[in-house]
Each structure stands twice: as C-alpha cells, then as structure tokens.
Automatic annotation (TrEMBL):
Name of protein: Gluconate transporter
Family annotation (PANTHER family): GNT FAMILY GLUCONATE TRANSPORTER, HIGH-AFFINITY GLUCONATE TRANSPORTER
InterPro entries to which the protein is assigned, alphabetical: Glcn_transporter
Gene name of the record: gntT
Family the UniProt entry places it in: Belongs to the GntP permease family.
Membrane-crossing segments per the record: 20-39, 59-85, 97-117, 137-160, 181-208, 214-240, 261-280, 300-328, 340-363, 383-400
Lineage summary: Bacteria, Pseudomonadati, Bacteroidota, Sphingobacteriia, Sphingobacteriales
Organism the protein comes from: Mucilaginibacter dorajii
Length: 401
C-alpha cells in the first residue's frame, strides 16, 4: 500500500530485522545470561542490600537513579537496560515495592544519557555533522540531563505506584541466606564490569598512544558485543565456579535465560521490519520535505523535525541523523549555536516512544505490562524527557551567544 514493489517487500522486512538484530542480538542474549547469573547467584540481592544500607529503603529509588546515570554515560542503552533490570527486580522483590515506580526512574536516566550525551551514537554523530564541540555539548547536555531525569523519573513515577506489574520470572531469584551470598566487592565488580571495560576503552584515545595495532585491539575489545562476552566469561568464574556451581548448572541457567527472552527478540525484530518498510517506501523522506516549510525558530524546528520522525519511525538514532540532514544548512550558516542544536535534536529524538520502538517493547515485556500501561508509563516518561530537554536548550540559548 505504500508503493513498495511486491517482490521487494520481503527483502525490506529481512533488512529491517537484520539491521536491528545485528546490533542487539548478541548484547541482549549475553546480557540476559549475565542478568540471570547475577540474580541466581545472589549478587543482585547483595548489591541491593548494600545500596539500601547506604541510603535507606526510603531513598532506594534515588540510589538507583544515580547508578543508572553513572552507568548510562559510557554504556549503550540496550546494554544498560539488560544489565540494570535484574538489579531493579531484585530490589522490588526484596522490599515488595512497585516495579514500575522503582524501575522507570533508573531507565529515565539511561534514556537521557542515550539522547543527550556523547559518546552515545546519535549525539556523537551530530557533534561531527554540526562541527560542534564535544566537551561543550557534554557540559550543556549534563546541565539539561539533571532536571530532565529528576522530573521525568522520581517525580513522574509518584503517579505510577498503582500500575500492576509482574516482571519476568527469569530475573526472580529465591532469596539466599547471608552466608551463601557472594561478597559485595565481587558482586559490584562483576555486575559493573561491562561499564568499567567500556569506560576504559572510551578514555583510551586520550592517552596519546599512536600504535595502530594497539588501537585496533582496543577498538575490538571495546565493541559492546565483545565487552558483554568478556563480562559473561568473567562472571561464569566469579559468580559461578567460585560460588560452587558446576558448568552444567550454569548451562541450564544460561539456556533458561535465552528461552525467557526469545519472544522479546522476535518483537524487537518486528519493530525493525516495520521501520525499514516505512523507510524503503520513502515515507521518511516525504515527512522531511514537508517539515522544511515550517516557520519556526531553528532550535524548535530541529526538535519538531526529530520528534515527528521519531514518532513515525521509532528509532531515536535515525530520527536524530535524519533531522540533522535537514537543518544542517541553518547551523553552517551561523544562525544557531551548534552545540545546542545537537541537544535540541537529541531531545526531539526521544519524543513519545511507542509500538514502533524497540525500547517500548523491551520495557513492556521485561516488566510484563499491558500496552495501555506501557504508554502511560514508558511513553509518557520519554515525552517528558523530550519536552524538558527542549525547554533546557531554549533556556541555555538565552545566556549563550
């Protein structure tokens, strides 16, 4: 119906599935295995106990938000999601707290870093496209990120306490006695190893090392899929073998983890197919051409274009890069601060995540929610982040010339 030749429809579907699963499949599968082990070994229980003892049960939500923000800066969103979900569920099971109320603020902090802060793919690419300054963009983005996370996270979550949620059983481990739990250092080290590896590889270029072979090796080791593989291998020893588990027991754990997320993988693949059909038909191009006629201030125009493409196609990265191509002329002609345009488009690219976005389905399926409740919680949180982000950009623009 969109005009794609009928013999090209299947290849569009396959390409869409391949594009999205190519980058996510290994990460989600290895992340589920790691999450299952973190849960069943008692590491998640130990981490939650340490956090609660440090800040008190009353403030556990803020502890998780802070952890999500710190972890979200170097970590790709998909990895951060599958790493943090077991921790969220461990806290909700242990202290009988509403899963959405506790979990959404942490995921809000991950989402904000994904849309606003380098080194994430979209803001990093936009910095290059607009010839902006990476450090300045990060500082402005950090200033906007804090209020966005607070308002769209803990404040908004106050209205979500009554949303029913029975999260995936794969991350629900039986509570272990204290003498069978791994140590706090072991638990934190293993759960946060992917974060530490990615941070090391992110800062490596600033050490001034020029050797091409070393740089190639670091680039290989810094790939998210390799990072997750290394983390799972280490966890197999630190939380598995070292805790008295046999390889056959661990294999059963890992197999169960993959079974539990099989449906999620198919749903995410479906959202990729949907996005590619819309792209291949030229819908995204038609939308872009129509939006160029809008008579709006440049920063607002960039946000609106990114938001409409995001709502139409689902991908924050695609929305950001497509919007950038349309407004590049405004930036290069000196009509707008390039650092703020990066953040305006980044904010727009997070607007109203719904059924064509893989993040929507990840949240819905992991938290086992209805579509209606997912829209009330996840989609509204993303929209709040987007609107608050635009407001922050416009406020900073009044002081920066």
């Amino acid at each position: 119906m969109l005009g794609i030749p009928i013999n090209k429809v299947t290849s569009s579907v396959q390409k869409g599935m391949g594009d999205i699963m190519g980058s996510l499949l290994i990460i989600i599968c290895l992340g589920a295995m790691l999450g299952k082990l973190v849960a069943t070994s008692g590491a998640a229980q130990k981490i939650s106990e340490v956090l609660v003892n440090a800040v008190g049960e009353k403030h556990i939500q803020w502890a998780l938000v802070t952890a999500g923000f710190i972890i979200g800066i170097p970590l790709f969103y998909g990895i951060g999601f599958v790493l943090m979900v077991p921790l969220i569920f461990s806290v909700t099971y242990k202290y009988k707290l509403p899963a959405v109320f506790i979990g959404l603020p942490m995921l809000a902090s991950l989402s904000v870093t994904h849309g606003f802060l380098p080194p994430h793919p979209s803001p990093s690419a936009l910095v290059v496209l607009f010839h902006a300054n990476m450090a300045t963009t990060f500082i402005y983005g950090f200033m906007i990120a804090i209020p966005a996370i607070i308002l769209a996270g803990p404040v908004f979550a106050q209205f979500l306490k009554k949303i029913p949620s029975e999260p995936l059983a794969t991350f629900r481990a039986e509570e272990l006695p204290a003498n069978k739990l791994p140590g706090a250092a072991n638990s934190f080290f293993t759960a946060l190893l992917p974060v530490m590896l990615l941070m090391l590889t992110a800062f490596f270029p600033y050490l001034g090392i020029k050797d091409k072979q070393i740089l190639s090796l670091v680039a290989f080791l810094g790939d998210p899929s390799i990072v997750m593989l290394i983390a799972l291998i280490v966890a197999t020893f630190t939380l598995g073998i070292k805790q008295g588990k046999t390889m056959s027991q661990l294999a059963v754990n890992y197999t169960d983890a993959i079974k539990d997320i099989a449906l999620i993988l198919l749903i995410i693949a479906g959202s990729g197919a949907f996005k590619e059909v819309l792209t291949a038909s030229g819908v995204s191009g038609q939308i872009a051409n129509q939006l160029q006629t809008f008579n709006l201030p440049p920063l607002v125009l960039g946000w609106v274009i990114a938001a409409i493409i995001r709502i139409s196609l689902g991908s924050a990265t695609v929305a950001g890069l497509t919007a950038a191509g349309i407004v590049t002329g405004l930036v290069t002609q000196g009509h707008v601060n390039p650092n703020l345009m990066v953040l305006s488009i980044g904010a727009g690219s997070l607007a109203f995540s719904h059924v064509n976005d893989s993040g929507f389905w990840l949240f819905k399926e992991y938290f086992n929610l209805s579509i209606k409740d997912t829209i009330k919680s996840w989609s509204m949180m993303e929209s709040l982040v987007s609107i608050i982000g635009l407001a922050g950009v416009l406020i900073i623009n009044q002081f920066v010339k």
